[in-house]
Amino acid sequence: MTQAVMRPVTPSQDFALVLGGGGAKGLAHIVVIEALDEMGLRPREVAGTSIGAIIGACYCAGMTGAEMRAYALDVMQVKPDVLKAIFSARVGRFSDLFRQGLTNPMLVDPERLLGALFPSQVPKDFAELVTPLTVVATDFYERVDVAFSQGPLLPAVAASMAIPGVVSPVRHAGRVLIDGGTINPVPVDKVSAPVSVAVDVLHGSELALEIDEVVPNVWDALFGSVTLMMQVLSAARLAEHRPTIHLRPPVDPFRVLDFLKVREILAACEPMKDEVKRRVTIALEAVPADVVGESR
């Protein structure tokens, strides 16, 4: 890919960064943040759902994209301490599956998991963040999305990543909360800056999938269905709340739980840095209403 010719851009606080949900696909957010770091730019606010909330918390705590890349590569080496953290975060025991018939032995407590794996730079409270952050979760009983921007940080992010069937729901602020992506996968409506940069990892490309008659296994069917649901919701939300810049990293070949493929995901998204720099440059130099919103 040819190197984009960049015009000088003065660091601006007039844009917001929106980081969408999508499991491991959301590791692409790191590459977008690296591009902004290389431009010397930082948004005035960040909103995130699920994996977007996790990476958003690290970014708003002051971590650079390069630091997040190094941390992700280190954690996903499946070292003994990482495996210990994951297994210690499980809810219930295998015997419960036969005794009660209701407990999923692989269900993970998100607060325990984040407590063990979050970088030490991430504070305990929203007020301690360097950049304002809005974390989006879903109220299971009220069936609405809920935005958190103050108070304890860990339970809000844990709730935002509570993927049904894998991660246990979170009780927080008088609510029972699940993954924000079940209602608001790319929360553009939660920011107010005149320019918004939305990273949508659910629509990674226009890749045509090969159609066959192979029946997916139970996990592929489950997460394929969740991804499909989020894609439909994302399209509807983005049509209603159109971002200034709609970035779609090339992550279609990867699955929601492909966290062990962090190196491959980052490598696949590396070429999009030029696009990020070019489009952000144009957006910050233009009248926001005149900027085209979706990448092709």
From TrEMBL:
Query: Which superkingdom does the taxonomy of this entry point to?
Result: Bacteria
Which InterPro entries would you find in this protein's record?
Acyl_Trfase/lysoPLipase, NTE, PNPLA_dom
The PNPLA domain covers which part of the protein? Answer: 17-192
The answer on whether this UniProt entry bears the keyword Metal-binding reads: no
Motif GXSXG covers 48-52
Its Gene Ontology biological processes?
A: lipid catabolic process
* GO MF annotation list: hydrolase activity
The protein's matches in Gene3D superfamilies, at most eight in alphabetical order, are given as: Cytosolic phospholipase A2 catalytic domain
Name the active site residues.
50, 179
Q: Which Pfam families match?
A: Patatin
Motif DGA/G covers 179-181
List UniProt keywords, sorted A-Z: Hydrolase, Lipid degradation, Lipid metabolism
Residue window of motif GXGXXG: 21-26
Q: Does the keyword Cell inner membrane apply?
A: no
Protein name, as recorded: NTE family protein
